[in-house]
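U., I forgot to send this yesterday:
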Amino acid sequence: MLCAVQDGQYIDADTKELHLTLATYNTIRTAFGYTTFTFTWKPSGDIQAAIHIATMPTVPYVDAREK
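Result:
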């Protein structure tokens, strides 16, 4: 994946940080997910990775006329 990002010229030697965000929906659990990956290039050449995950259950829609 990193090669594809480099080939598309989204990152280069001056890149300091890369954010990847994914939105998902789980039909079995009826929940949404929102995940952010952050990759930070350090001056030493190391890459620090961090992940943040948030989930939210869905609430079934109930027609008020059915009550």
